[in-house]
Amino acid sequence: MHALILILILCLSAFLQDDPYVQDRERMVRTQIEMRGIKDQAALSSMKKVQRHLFVPKDLRDNAYDDRPLPIGYGQTISQPFIVAYMTEIIRPNKNSKMLEIGTGSGYQAAVLAEIISDVYTIEIITELSNSSEKRLKELSYKNVYVKNADGYYGWKEHAPFDAIIVTAASEYIPPPLIEQLKDGGRMIIPVGSPFQTQMLMLVEKKDGKVTTKSLMPVIFVPFKRSK
Ligand code: SAH
Questions:
Q1: In a domain, 227, yes or no
Q2: How many other CB atoms are there within 10 angstroms of residue 73's CB atom?
Q3: Domain that holds residue 69
Q4: Is residue 147 within 8 Å of 124, Cβ to Cβ?
Q5: 16 confidence band (pLDDT: 50, 70, 90)
Q6: Per-residue pLDDT at 14 exceeds 60
Q7: How far is ligand 1, taken at its centre, from the CA of residue 89, in Å?
Q8: How far apart are the CA of 103 and the centre of ligand 1, in A?
């Protein structure tokens, strides 16, 4: 009897929230993220909140909380949930941070960041993806995310310097304009390596004008494109 009441309450709350994926999302954060060592409370609660299924194509919604990247059209992907959490934790986001993301894609990583920090600037090279993620983020009422359709290689000079930069496409080398636009004391995370091969996720730090890099882990990201 008690179990029945509990099930009814759970169904009703899912219905009222108009979000049938609440439990899938909690499970995703617990098993894929917390259990793999991510501790940043802000990152964990943001990922419990942001409705990842609204960032994937409709026919893939039931897979939105799977432990893998998913296609979002135009040959691009939304990153695996763990990678989003890992990149978020490593750049040490805080309330006052101003951040630049290269590779808006679905807008999911930008939304996860926007829950935590004050301003997210994000650049997407594919016009259709840039437009659709801008629209999605607006519909979801994110007022602190600014989307631009451009080649992110050049960064976003007008708003630099940034406390942190997240690059979500693999580049053969770290674009010098991005290093320039990183604040002193800032951190950048970027996958470096050849397209369609395993790349290395690198942490770039700038301190007293000196730039240091550290290899974090092997990853596979879609290639960093260049505008013609
Ligand atoms: N952060 C995204 C992941 C997107 S995949 C998300 O949460 O969904 C990487 C994205 O980088 C793709 O959409 C791709 O089009 C974009 N991209 C590749 N090269 C780029 C460049 N030079 N400037 C901006 N975006 C780029």
A1: no
A2: 14
A3: 2-219
A4: yes
A5: low
A6: no
A7: 19
A8: 3
The total domain count for the chain is 1
Q: What is the mean pLDDT of residues 109-135?
A: 98
Tens digit of pLDDT for each residue in 50-89? 999 999 999 999 999 999 999 999 999 999 999 999 999 9
For residue 214, is it within any domain? yes
- CA dist 90 and 77 (Å) reads 21
Q: Which residues, including other chains, have CB under 8 Å from residue 31's CB and lie 6 or more apart?
A: none
DSSP H/E element including 65: none
Ligand 1 nearest-atom number relative to CA 109: 7
Edge-to-edge strand list for the sheet holding 119-124: 145-149, 119-124, 98-102, 162-167, 182-192, 199-207, 210-219
Asked if the structure places residue 175 within a domain, the reply is yes
Residue 141 appears among annotated catalytic residues: no
Q: Whose alpha carbon is nearest atom 18 of ligand 1?
A: 224
Q: Answer yes or no: is pLDDT of 197 > 80.
A: yes
Query: How far is residue 211's CA from residue 144's CA, in Å, rounded to a whole number?
Result: 29
Find the CATH number of the domain harbouring 105. Answer: 3.40.50.150
pLDDT reported for residue 17 = 62
| Partners of residue 149 on adjacent β-strands | 124
**Closest ligand 1 atom number to CA of residue 226:** 22
Could you tell me the distance, in angstroms and rounded to a whole number, from the CA of residue 38 to the centre of ligand 1? Answer: 24
For the cut 60, the answer to whether the pLDDT of residue 105 exceeds it is yes
